[in-house]
Write a structure and sequence with these properties.
alpha/beta; 6-stranded mixed beta sheet; Rossmann fold; 12 strands; 2 domains; 6-stranded parallel beta sheet
Amino acid sequence: MVRSRSTMPRLHRFLTPLSIKILERRRLEDREHERVLLLGDPVGHSLSPKFQNAGFTAAGVSVRYQVRRVAPLELAGVVREIRDDPRIIGANVTIPHKLAVVSLLDELAPEAAAVGAVNTLSRRGSRLIGSNTDVAGFRRALSEVLPPPLGEDRGGGPRSALILGAGGAARAVAYVLGLLRAELFIVSRDLDAGRRLVRQLHLEHARATPMGSLALMVPAVELIVNATPVGIDGKSLLFPAEWLTPRHFVFDLLYNPPVTPLVEAALAHGARAVTGLDMLLYQGAASFEIWTGKPAPEPAMREALQQAVSRA
C-alpha cells in the first residue's frame, strides 16, 4: 500500500527518534543517488542488490540498486515511470516480464532483438534501450564448466540438450546452444510458447515437446538446463530424480536455495551439476557495464555474492 505524504507524519508517533533519523537519512540518500531497479514478481529471493550495490561502491559510482515487485498489469506503468525519471538510469527485468517488456521499449540491442527477450534496461535521454545480458552470462558460465572445445565456430559443446521452460531465460539458453549447434528439445507447460521459441529464434536443430515427453527426453540428452522457477521452494522437481544418470550434466539457472533440488538430485545420482550463481554474476557484470560505462569490479561483486549465499 502506498501512503500519501499526509499520512507519513502519523507514523512518527510509533517510531523511536533513532528510527526516524534512519528513515530521513535513507530518503535523503535516495534523492541524492541515481537508481537501478529490479523488476519482477517475485523478487524477494534475489541476491542482485547485494552484489550490484557492492559493485557500485567499489567503482565509486553513486548509484543504488533497489528491488521493485511488479505485477504483470503494473509493468507498463512502471516502464513509463522509469522513462520519465532521469534519476533511474536503468533496470534489470526478471520473471515474469522478460518477454512482455520488449514491446514497451524504444530500441533493442542486437542480441535482445535476436532472442526476443530483455533482462536489462538502459536509457539514452528519454529513450529506453533493451539488452539481453543473459546470453553473455550463460555463454561464459557454460564455457567454464563444460570441457573444450566450446566455441560457435567449431560447433563445440553438448551434442544434445533439454531446456526446461520457454520464457525469457530459456530463450537466452536456446540462443547460445543453437550457436553451438546442439540438438535441442524445449519442454514447457505451454507447448505453443515452446514452438514460438523455436520458430522465432530460427533454430534449425530444435523442437518443442510436451511435458509428457520428459520420460523419453531426459535419458536421450547430455545437458539438462532448468530455465523455470521450479525448485525455488527448495523441494520441487519437474521429473523424478531417478531419471538422472552419471552421463548427464545439469545446469540449473536457479541459484537460491544455494543447492537447488535439481542439483541435489543430479549429484546424488552421479551427474555433474551447477547452479546459476556464476551466470547471475556474469550477466550482472555485463548489465553493470551497460549502465555505468565502466568495467565491472568483478572481484568485489563476487565476494559480496558469495557472502550473500553463505547467509541464505
